[in-house]
């Protein structure tokens, strides 16, 4: 790192440095594969459509998961953090268009992030002022859902292509420890000017959310990890994630809605799943 650069957060806290103790819960075995042809149907469900069978399996995994990872932008919060930052810095329209292209999966995540941040060039002060003046708006039902998961002993993580300082603010509101936040880290010069972002974070790459899930499984021996999110980058994290739940409560991504076996538009649907058993 060039002299004169400081990080808002600790730049050196790479994935492997995370040592938070976790106690994975004992899990029952669920027969599940990511290939539809491998789903095992009971004698009573031979005539059931494959889609229904796979959905049932996914729901069983969600109910017995030992870790749930949430995307943040347009999932846990109503807006896209980087778009809000761009608006705040006066380049909202240009950056919103770049975000739309990134979500559609037509450019690599890192290339899109580099281009957008190159336009925004947010200062340290602007990021702090955004958080204090326009704090992220929680999606209805998320507070209750996270609380319920915590009550059940489920580990909750925020895995975001957004920025650490903003996502940590969200985590604080949901009683999620900052050690459970995986996001991108902005860098600033001593005078507060934008100095780039930490390109070594897994969340800076296409496929980065999957890498985070793999890391979580290795470190904490989680057997079943659920990923919930609105975007293509969330869906592609499964596998290694065991269950993807598409979320369309804030914005509907056509590709995700069409491909996700389980797609919801309100977190109440997941709360009900937890109450039924
Ligand atoms: Mg999102």
TrEMBL record:
The active site is at residues 71, 73. Pathway: Amino-acid biosynthesis; L-serine biosynthesis; L-serine from 3-phospho-D-glycerate: step 3/3. GO terms for biological process: L-serine biosynthetic process. It catalyses: O-phospho-L-serine + H2O = L-serine + phosphate; O-phospho-D-serine + H2O = D-serine + phosphate. It is an enzyme of class 3 (hydrolase). One of its GO terms (cellular component) is cytoplasm. This is Phosphoserine phosphatase. The lineage of its organism: Eukaryota, Metazoa, Chordata, Craniata, Vertebrata.
């Amino acid at each position: 790192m060039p002299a004169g650069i400081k990080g808002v957060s600790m730049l050196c806290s790479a994935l492997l440095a995370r040592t938070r103790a976790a106690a994975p819960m004992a899990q029952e075995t669920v027969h599940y594969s990511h290939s539809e042809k491998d789903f095992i149907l009971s004698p009573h469900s031979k005539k059931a459509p494959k889609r229904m069978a796979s959905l049932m399996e996914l729901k069983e995994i969600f109910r017995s998961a030992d870790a749930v990872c949430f995307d943040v932008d347009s999932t846990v919060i109503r807006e896209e953090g980087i778009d809000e930052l761009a608006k705040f810095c006066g380049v909202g329209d240009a950056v919103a268009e770049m975000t739309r292209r990134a979500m559609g999966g037509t450019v690599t995540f890192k290339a899109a992030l580099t281009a957008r941040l190159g336009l925004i060039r947010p200062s340290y002060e602007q990021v702090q002022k955004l958080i204090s003046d326009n704090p992220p708006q929680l999606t209805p039902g998320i507070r209750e859902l996270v609380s319920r998961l915590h009550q059940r002993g489920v580990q909750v993580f925020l895995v975001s292509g957004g920025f650490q300082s903003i996502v940590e603010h969200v985590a604080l509101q949901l009683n999620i420890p900052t050690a459970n936040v995986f996001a991108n880290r902005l860098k600033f010069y001593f005078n507060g000017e934008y100095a780039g972002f930490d390109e070594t974070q897994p969340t800076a790459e296409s496929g980065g959310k999957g890498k985070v899930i793999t890391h979580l499984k290795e470190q904490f021996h989680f057997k079943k990890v659920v990923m919930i999110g609105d975007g293509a980058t969330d869906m592609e994290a499964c596998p290694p994630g065991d269950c993807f739940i598409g979320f369309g409560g804030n914005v509907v991504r056509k590709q995700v809605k069409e491909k996700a076996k389980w797609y919801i538009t309100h977190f109440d649907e997941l709360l009900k799943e937890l109450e039924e058993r």
